[in-house]
Design goal:
Blueprint (H helix, E strand, L loop, with lengths): L2 H25 L7 H25 L3 E5 L2 H9 L1 H5 L10 H33 L1 E3 L2 E3 L8 E3 L2 E4 L1 H21 L1 H14 L4 H24 L4 H12 L10 E2 L5 H8 L8 H6 L1 H12 L2 H9 L4 E5 L7 H7 L19 H11 L4 H5 L4 E9 L5 E8 L3 H12 L7 E3 L2 E3 L1 E9 L4
Parallel strand pairs: 1-7, 3-5
Antiparallel strand pairs: 2-3, 4-5, 4-6, 8-9, 8-12, 10-11
Length: 429
């Protein structure tokens, strides 16, 4: 995947995250027993939305079938294949390229920060001593937290409040909350400029704490003592690490209020289901042809090499000669009725020079690529080299009015073939 594709995917993912975050806050689903799965579903929908344009764009790419003969392969790579690239390779820095480079710099910084957070946890674990099923940190001010299979706390906490803290952290451990945070942190690196993922992660951590607090109360510990313990811990040093759940990393007032309720906010399932229409809308927008074509523009060509004198097997035919496969080079090329001269005569006779372009003296050569289908009709048409939107539109229009071609053939069978045509717009002096 190129940098441009990665940047495009991150933009789609960020937009989807903003919409899903808004839906989560409006429904207040994070305050219900379904808060954790609902938030994870929201992020997963955003990730799928980012991948959809890539899948659709790749599926719509034409097949380029080339002969293994070096001369033909070189000829195709120099002409046909380069013409099909969208947009054409350019040595100049565009605004999109500059933004992509800025995105890459931010991505590297975000990955370094994420790696530093993981390294901090690993160092704390390595320096700690195991007692029973708890790691005791040599740092007397260490805040209790959980990561993977380890519960870490300070010697003082272990001696004075060991059981209640173990119950809290064991709830994080058994629910594997660390996997949630790892997932959201990775997405956060890829969308480092989007605040929605940070806010979703905080909501998720709060949902984690609701679950752990509920486990402590269900274990029979005194609620008032536990709440006073949380308040006393909140006045000390915080464990500022987004990769692990800490006992005091999250809104304390809201947690105490939630502990006083017999159950979390009602109608949790209905609130979670309310996210589905938003999710479906997000996925529908992500699968639009505009995003797919933009992704397609930065994708490599799909090339199938056919050996000399080799015949395609049934399996090969299934891969290359299905209804959607489009060839770039074939044994017998498609032909306009009457030949190329007749085609250019048709262009000269029927093309309509846009009035505004004529008044502004806009001229140039628009290169159009279109599919000559197996039945000779004209299929997908697109501009490979643009001059002006109005000239581009006229070139597409005139191509779509072509009569049926004699179709191209591969091994005696009519096939779909890409046909590239330059349409020259030139004003009379």
């Amino acid at each position: 995947m190129t940098l441009s594709l990665l940047f495009l995917s991150s933009l789609v993912c960020s937009a989807a995250l903003l919409l899903m975050y808004s839906a989560v806050r409006l429904t207040r689903v994070h305050l219900t027993p379904y808060g954790r799965p609902a938030i994870l579903m929201a992020v997963l929908i955003a990730v799928i939305a980012a991948i959809l344009p890539l899948i659709i764009g790749w599926h719509s790419r034409p097949f380029f079938v080339i002969d293994s003969e070096p001369e033909l392969a070189n000829q195709l790579s120099d002409s046909t294949l380069s013409q099909q690239a969208l947009p054409a390779p350019s040595s100049t820095l565009t605004a999109w390229n500059i933004l992509s480079i800025i995105y890459l710099i931010g991505l590297i910084i975000a990955l370094l920060r994420f790696s530093r957070s993981l390294l901090r946890i690993i160092l704390i674990i390595r320096r700690s001593e195991a007692i029973d099923d708890v790691l005791i940190s040599p740092d007397k001010n260490q805040i209790a937290f959980t990561w993977a299979k380890w519960i870490i706390m300070s010697p003082i906490d272990y001696q004075t409040n060991g059981e209640i803290l173990k119950t809290h952290e064991a709830a994080h451990k058994s629910a594997r909350h660390w996997i949630d945070l790892l997932f959201l942190n990775i997405i956060g690196c890829l969308t480092w400029y989007c605040p929605a993922i940070t806010m979703l992660r905080r909501l998720l951590q709060t949902a984690h704490e609701f679950q752990a607090d509920r486990a402590v109360l269900n274990a029979g510990f005194d609620p008032k003592y536990y709440q006073l313990l949380l308040i006393s811990k909140a006045s000390g040093r915080r464990f500022a690490n987004s990769v692990a759940d800490s006992i005091i990393n999250h809104p304390l007032k809201q947690r105490i209020i939630m502990m006083q309720k017999k159950s979390l906010l009602s109608h949790g399932l209905l609130r979670s289901l309310a996210l589905l229409p938003v999710g479906i809308s997000v996925l529908t927008l992500a699968s639009s042809s505009i995003l797919a074509s933009q992704a397609e523009a930065y994708m490599p060509e799909k090339i199938i090499t056919v050996e000399d004198d080799a015949t395609l097997t049934d399996d090969d035919a299934a891969k290359t000669e299905d209804d959607n496969a489009v060839f770039t080079t074939v044994e017998i090329a498609p032909q306009y009725p009457g030949g190329e001269m007749a085609m250019y005569e048709y262009l000269a006779k029927n093309i309509r020079y846009p009035k505004e372009c004529a008044e502004r003296n806009i001229q140039g050569k628009v290169i159009v690529s279109f599919v000559v289908k197996a039945d000779g009709s004209i299929g997908d048409a697109k501009v490979v080299k643009s001059v002006d939107p109005q000239l581009d539109g006229e070139a597409i229009r005139i191509v779509r009015t072509f009569p049926k071609f004699t179709p191209g053939k591969m091994q005696g069978k009519p096939v779909n073939v890409w046909y590239t045509l330059p349409v020259n717009f030139k004003l009379q002096s």
